[in-house]
Amino acid sequence: MQKPLCLRGTGHRDGENFHFPSDCYRRRSSLTSGIGMQVKDQVVVVTGGAHGIGRAMCRRFAAEGARGVVVADLDAVAASGVAREIGGLAVRTDVSVPADLQALVAAAEQKFGTIDLFCSNAGIETGGGLDAPDEAWQRIWQINVMAHVYGARAVLPGMLKRGRGYLLQTASAAGLLTQMSSAPYSATKHAAVGLADWLAITYGDAGIKVSCLCPLGVRTNMLMGTEDPIAVFLRQGAIDPEQVAQAVVDGLAREDFLILPHPEVAEFFRRKADDYDRWLRGMKRLRASLPGMPEPKA
Ligand SMILES: NC(=O)c1ccc[n+]([C@@H]2O[C@H](COP(=O)([O-])OP(=O)(O)OC[C@H]3O[C@@H](n4cnc5c(N)ncnc54)[C@H](O)[C@@H]3O)[C@@H](O)[C@H]2O)c1
Fold it and tell me: Which of 29, 134, 259, 273 could bridge to 251 as Cys pair (CB 3.0-4.6 Å)?
């Protein structure tokens, strides 16, 4: 018989079942460091800044003393609300449209001067497997992957000229592990991690820093507004967006490539690399144990 999943407080492997400790983050969250990027006095752009993780980052960057925070989002009304609250600039942006990213960078530079930190954070989730419609695959590819390309194309030329700049790419733990109820989300988040890798390797010697943010469950609309069985599962160990913002500030200060607000993700990723087949067996067992998981469709 399957052992019940333990979601809290263990952080160890039980055979091949994965345990998701919920509050490891808190044990690490007081980290402060002074060696890498300090957000104080910097100009920062955050896409998807109107809600959830992006909004928490905007607020946190403002509290850290950023010189300018630009809140970029499809939801112009909510972006304006966040910008008003923190004394920033709201720019209505659809990150799937290259011209919007060019206009965003221009608007940010006009208001605050050159951009020090560009956070490409907007993302969407769409459920489904192979049966997900092609339009859904295209849409999520545009937003979860191409938006990072469009953002980098818009902001990198200036950073390269100055020989300095920082890109923070929000991917997901689903880009290192997987998201069992969504093939499009898993595939696009893996692609986002791959792109971040490539950016770090390609532009590192030109003075460009890259971090890749890979949370597990975070209490935002994306996680809380659905009855998807994996979302329901992840809610049990979910953290608040403010804790993600803390991890980001800490990760930037250390210039970590991988920023993991849930530290257990590092351990899961290590186990996956150590023994991929064993990891797949554990994930299959976990999938079979979760209530509500759909039958695989052809
Ligand atoms: N919540 C989680 O559990 C979780 C876990 C891992 C990774 N992430 C990632 O974190 C990022 C932020 O997600 P969140 O949880 O804060 O979700 P959210 O839905 O609360 O916020 C996403 C924001 O992106 C904006 N957005 C969506 N499409 C856009 C577009 N085309 N152009 C501009 N803005 C757009 C939305 O308006 C919203 O403000 C996403 O990339 C998501 O994949 C979330």
Answer: 259
Helices (H), the chain: 24-28, 52-63, 76-86, 98-112, 134-141, 147-162, 183-203, 221-224, 229-235, 241-254, 264-274, 276-289
Q: What would the pLDDT profile of 145-155 be if each residue is shown by its tens digit?
A: 999 999 999 99
- Eight-state DSSP code of residue 295: P
> Per CATH, the architecture of 37-262 is what?
3-Layer(aba) Sandwich (3.40)
Q: How far is the CA of 133 from the centre of ligand 1 (A)?
A: 21
pLDDT digits (tens, 9 = 90+) for 133-186: 999 999 999 999 999 999 999 999 999 999 999 999 999 999 999 999 999 999
Do 196 and 188 contact (CB within 8 A), yes or no? Answer: no
For ligand 1, atom 43, which residue shows the shortest CA distance? 123
Cβ < 6 A, ligand 1 pocket? 47-48, 50-54, 73-75, 93-96, 121-124, 143, 170, 172, 215, 217-218, 220-223
pTM of the model: 0.91
**What's the gap in Å between 241 CA and the centre of ligand 1?**
11
Give the distance, in angstroms, between the CA of residue 101 and the centroid of all CA atoms in the same chain: 18
